[in-house]
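Entry 14. Ran structure prediction on the chain below.
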Amino acid sequence: MKQYLFSYGTLQPDIAPKEIAGAVRSLRRIGRGRVHGRLYDLGEYPGAILSSTGPVILGQVFEVPDDPEILRQLDEYEGFDPAHPEGSLFVRRKYPVTLRGGKKIKCWVYTYNRHPGSAPGLPTGDFAKTRSLKTR
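Output, structure tokens:
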């Protein structure tokens, strides 16, 4: 069965850091997607807290190769321990993502597993766009 990943942050090919770039390159891009929730700027990366009524968070949908090592690498990068999700920085869970055109697809999404505190929100819901504006 195919597995999909919704990436709204540093798990996108253009902005993936060196330590995860190899795993990210193995993902097959499906297209743009969106979920609802709040996106926070946590410094080097964003954190999403999903909700059915929040603003839109934009990102990319990828097909994950049929290789458990890829998800293991992504989990490690995101600070997710499947054996102890309560202590993880991010939690990987299945969530419906809306693709361009309106089709919904269940994807893995890494959601922030802490209170955002004073972290600023990203009102555009688009970390990649915000990051490219910062680096100009």
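The chain has one domain: 3-125. Will compare against last week's run tomorrow.
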